[in-house]
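1st attempt posting a full record on here, be nice pls
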Amino acid sequence: MGNLDAATVSGRILLAMAVLMVTVRIVGWLVSKIGQPRVLGEIVAGILLGPSVLGLVWPGLMAHLFPPQVITGLNVLAQTGLVMFMFLVGLEIDVKSLRGQGRKVTVISHASLLVPIALAVPLAVWLYPRFGQRTDELAFVLFFAAAMAITAFPVLSRLLRESDLLSTRVGVVSLVCAAINDIYAWIMLAVVVAVAKSAGSEDVLRTLLLSIVYVVVMLAVVRPLLRKLGHPSIWVMIAVAILSAWTTDQIGIHAIFGGFLAGAVMPRDPDWQRDVEAKLESIISVLLLPMFFGLVGLSTRIDQLTTAALWLTALLVVVVATAGKLGGATVAARLTGDRWTESLLIGVLMNTRGLTEVVILTVGVQLGVVSPALFTIMVLMALVTTFMAAPLITVLKRRMAAGQVTSPAGDLRGAGAAR
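the predicted structure (as tokens):
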């Protein structure tokens, strides 16, 4: 297409933004009508606009909408959207809720983390010669294990709200376990980033040391200052999130960690937090995240899965991911006293990946840890594990409502029974 002048690029970026926003909203709405979370449709919308669909049906239009210069501009918006999305995730996680949750939460959270990792490591070793030649094997294995162990905390929260499970004991246990899972997974991912970006062991140690210093400063200095402000203004929170993201990027770990920790150190006031989320979520979900989904779609090359071996690999990844996450959480819940239906419900909830998985995969692509083919396979796994959640939740809720399962710890409607 050749080089475009600045005015043309600006116009094309605006056009691409409009197309992405409209497509994401329409597909997200359609998917919500069949009982699926909107985030699933938003990811599908990005794939529809990418080379896997639009690129095959109308390649000229895709080339017009998304030339390289436009992709560069959208990438800035996408990165900003990711940082602010992770800021909201950090704002939503209440570390105090991890205290006093008892043996059940400890067992389920660690089983749903360690079992997927145990299954993912040998699979990653097998996949490395086929998909990981561009990076260090240790970084590849650690990254794959972290990606298989993640639970999408924001998607889980939305599923629990939409299925009226948020205030139930099962919902509380699942949310707390997901929070613990994600903390461990983000730590693993930070180590992967340090290993992938480093030039040697000294570089890794430097990155980890600076990361520890950064966390200490955020917790011991920034958090008390924010508390003194009471309820910081929106512009203050955005500035803190962006500066924190820039800091982590300079340290050598991904900017999303800065966004996440900026949200985690904000003052805790439920009413104020809901107000902040309502103000920020609209601009993030309507404008910024569609840019991210569009770029994910452009990177997802389902059209390149042209052999039976690649599709069998995709199936294997889905099976291992589901067995590790759903199976590990279900068995752990059963061993700690829940009945099978209740245990399966916890396992299904913990198996949701969705947007958080795509965020992690995008980091892997940027680091060169994940090849385009493996990225596509892992995106498909995220879509399948998220898609299966809603119908399974409906079936299991019906069984519970029919009186087939009674919690040995008490009424499922009592969140306090989790303690």
